[in-house]
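Forwarding the complex inputs:
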Amino acid sequence: MASLDDLKKRITSVKSTQKITKAMKMVAAAKLRRAQESAEKGRPYSKKINNIILNLSNGISDIENAPKLLSGTGQERVHLCLVMTSDRGLCGGFNSNIIKKAKNYFSKILDEGKELKIITVGSKGNDQLKRVYGNKIIEHISFKESKNANYFDADKVGKMVIEKFEAGEFDVCTIFYNQFKNVITQIPQAQQIIPLNNEGEESSSDESYEFEPDEDEILSNLLPKNISTQIFKAMLENSASEQGSRMSAMDNATRNAGEMVDKLTIEYNRSRQAAITKELIEIISGAESL
Amino acid sequence: MTEEFKVEIVNPEKSFLVKDDVSEVVVPAFEGEMGILKDHISIISFLKPGIIKILSISGDENYYIEDGIVEFKNNNLSILTSKIFNLAEIDKSMQQDLLKQAEEEANKTDINDQSKYLADQKVEVLKTLN
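Prediction (whole assembly, two chains):
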């Protein structure tokens, strides 16, 4: 059995850990509110741009000559995966969930004999993937410097993806991120952004539009923007999910620490009483023998 | 019958402006300035750098934008843009900053004709802001 001193030390140590996790929970809660707000505010834009593209692609006259970003390169040989994770740890299953989803997808792609290229956004994803898929990672991006997700960063990633697409480096692009549902649930998502996958989405209206200039030109201008917008949306969802996930993870940790302190305190008190009893017995039996 | 319609300006971060008492909006469409009144035909167009003028009952407003898309449908005008500034809030130094950025962009040699044209537009519009 541990000595009283050891027990005392452990209790203090667990208590200070609890203080840290509690503080992290508070910080995450504050950040969550902001992140959630901006995720919600960002939704109209991505929804609208999606809608316009949907209307446009329905109205497009010449499917054969449609922009490649919309219709694809005609083959599905090389897959590019954009895995978006956080830069910081201690957020529960947040990163592992994305990685798990991505790894499933990777092994499916590789089993089909297709080529795989990975871009990791956020350092945690890179750390976890580089062991197994190190040779597939072609680019690693991290936004450690920027405090909040901003469109400028997303645009940089978007432009890079488009550049690679135009250089013919890949045929299909998928992004992996966590969709924020609520504080305790985040759903890992795989979303194909090139070619644009609009299946299952109905156009909001059959109304015909006037286009100025013509559809093709608008589309070829709009599609690159849409890529950046989708990436930005993923970033916003991700940051809200990260904070939510961290908050519940830290909440759990705080509770567990509390339980541990209780248990240790009981053990400490028991051993203290045992020691006192022992001393009493010694004194009494010493007095009796006199 | 009122002659007003609704306008909404959204940028990626948030819904920038919502107004429902607008009588006319002038946007710098790609092929020239375009005035939109109530019951305009449904239209989608994209914008070049320029000034958006919003004339409404509650007051007129002017915005400087660098790019964007407009969609008009059922008397709802949506303007999607990634860079927008209220003209009233642009001061001298900010204008100079934007101008400097635009000039740098326009002077790049490795850009295609279209981006060159857009950058030149930016410079031109910013110069007239004084």
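The mean pLDDT of chain A is 86.
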